[in-house]
Structures
1.
Amino acid sequence: MDQQLIEKVMKQVSDELAATKTASASASSTAPACDACCGDSVGLTEFVGTAIGDTIGLVIASVDPMLTDVMKLGNYRSIGIIGGRTGAGPQIMAVDEAVKATNTQVISVELPRDTKGGAGHGSLIIIGAEDVSDARRAVEIALNVLPKYFGDVYGNEAGHLEFQYTARASYCLEKAMGATRGRAWGMTCAGPAAIGAILADTAVKAANVEVIGYSSPGNGGTSYSNECILTFTGDSGAVRQAVRAAIEVGKKLLGSLGGEPESTTTPYI
């Protein structure tokens, strides 16, 4: 009897442990994509969270009056800040979604040269809001959707490829990339720049699209990074087709310099 009782107790404990692990895994799967969405984690009210690409999200409830002019904030006093060491397109796309969903406005987008990103850029994006809660919400949304837009960023030891697409551009893409709000928008980018030049030609030959801008190391728009970037618009299907054609060619060309280029997260285009 004693042995039977021991076995019964052990089985009950085992079942309870299994249930605990299942509940824990379920909670993890529904957790937000950003690493932290609460200022308590670092003890600062300005801190919102972090995400892929060494990206940090911050807010300032009331910017000091001595800084509003030099930061070119206009009438805004509450701001959200998204900054990353690696990636520029993904952060711009993420903020584009964030301003669609909140009562906020993109104040500025800067793309600094950052050697941690290899041949590419970092990013600094300022979001203005009448209320700090709106700025915080926009930053949270951007951090949570950011991993999606790293999905079509591919890399190997020789360089990187970046592709972006949206069926409906909004304020951040308008300010940063010259997109037309409400229209489809696409981008091809590669470092080394030589590959980027081929991708630009591939994209415009693959579908009926309209070029918005072309940037190369000495031609503006790249902070002298070793990249060529093409942005374009058109019918949603045509823009997607152009981007997909460039992805196929880009992976082959970059692969010739090293290993097979791998997606940073999960491709979405």
2.
Amino acid sequence: MEQGKKIKIQDVTLRDGNQALKKPWDLDQKKEVFDLLIELQVDGIEVGFPSSNQTEFEATKTLAKRAPRGLPIAALSRANRSEIERTWEALSYADTPRLHIVFPVSAFSIKHVLHMSEEQVLTRIVDTVAFARSIVGTRGEVQFSGEHFGDAFENFDFATECFLASIQSGADIINLPNTVERYRPFLFVDMVKKVADRIGNQVTVSVHTHNDLGMATATSVECAYVGATQIEVALNGLGERAGNTNLYETALALHQNGESIGIRFDRIYPTAKRISELTGIPIGEKTPIIGADIFSHRSGIHQDGVAKTKSMQKGAYRTFSPEFVGRNDSETISFTNQSGHKAIQFILESKGLEVTQGLVQVLFEQAKSISTKEGNREITESELVSWAKQQLIVI
């Protein structure tokens, strides 16, 4: 990656995320999600698939009108002239429109889904991208996605030819999707590198990865180091099947590695909570960045390190601070039969109690015994405080 080169975060929640919901959002809900994305300060928003139905058409038109000046607003279309025209009819209300055309490029999809020859595929791409360019003119951008690019091992040269042809026909952005995650990240990242090296600085290289094997974030982040300068993501990792690349994880991983990311990190947690409410999809307690339990420490060794580095910018067992992503909680130490003496001391001192090492030892043995006898349960802060006060009265 070039030093100081900004990685653009292109959100696809309102299109790819919404289409996968059991109950897709209505217009008012889409407006709310759109406004959340504006507050997050993402670099671009794909708002819908307007040629698919009237509801999507009206939503795309409404959100295009709602968009701030200068913010790229994308809408998806299949490689079909009439659908491209319909898409543009809704999208053209945006100040900075981006017409996004998708067509498969893998040998498997060409043979078993399209039932077309490679020559026919190439002709379709050239014709529709050129047509899109002719109606968009200089007002906006044209993006071409080669669907199932991640499957194009056996016909990689042809897939590359498709992207080059789309550029020659007027595409400003080429998007390389890992439409179904089947293989280890390195294989896809290497494919992206080869295409990016071939294209150079002619256009923006974008990636769009799905999370079928749980590696979408890692794959997308590594693509930023081989030539991709736009990453397509979704709020809460929403999307078909196991979802799309998670916006929060991708942005924070790049930030942690010194890259320039324009989003407001302090809006991550409130956004995630609201998206969970709007979808009815709960946030797992161990979900990175936004899970309820990710700042909890129960192992004795970890608790010792946490207590010693709690006030430092870099924590022994903390990647980032809760407040950085808009959380109002903090690192917590709780006691189970896996915990050590430091947990007792830390919890009581955080409650304003001054305790001796002797008292800590007494309470440690009491808490350990009760936890073990009662199914290894967690001992609460209130229990520890109550026992400590009883001991202090006795003393």
3.
Amino acid sequence: MNDDTTNLLEPPAGPETPGAAGTQGMPGVPAAANPLAEQVYQQLKNDIFSFRLFPGDRFSENGIAQHYGVSRTPMRDGLFRLQREGYLEVGFRRGWKVAPINFDQLDQLYDLRIVLEVAAVERVGVGGDVAHAAVEALKAIWCVEPELRESDPVKMFGMDENFHRQLVAATGNAEMLRVHNEVTERIRIVRRLDFLKPHRTSATYDEHSTMLNLIERNRLTEAIILLRAHITQSKLEVRKITLSMLAAARDSKLPFVS
């Protein structure tokens, strides 16, 4: 592995990174000691999530440095952070490889998501004015006529994530929201594939709007049954994902991939 150094990296900066030795990689530790490492991390993660970097793709540190125009130290910081999170693998004299998708882990994350969101519905259903306002704000987005519904799959993916995040946020429990955000991040790589199927878009609108109306009427048992079915369906769709489906979702192959 080489230690080429070149220019500055230009992609948009992301959120703050974990801090220096002893705390690096620990969740919730704000430090952002190396902005270039953060930029490498965010750009590579975006490339993995968009399948420009595909499960099994191999690349070298020299290739990354030349492509992004960044020196070895921040580049390696970003790479090792992605390795700790399970997105990359590294081997002696073999370079770096995008990790395969761990479907067993995804199953467990979906189960955790169900636990968190069921608890959120129970709390929002008996909540006060803040919870009620959150439900009304979501209804303004999801309880609309068919001709007003969003159809773009990329936008729908973001809207769906935000729906579930806002349900949890409406509880006022910051720790629940933090864990839910972490789960959302971990399943994002496959969850967006859901909205490449047109029927999932209309089903999502129907299920979200029904769920919100049930919560508003305090019919929480029915809302929870629907929520469980809604998330379980997404979980089952993940199990149907094949390498050919991933390849079809791939935007383009990056030039440094061997």
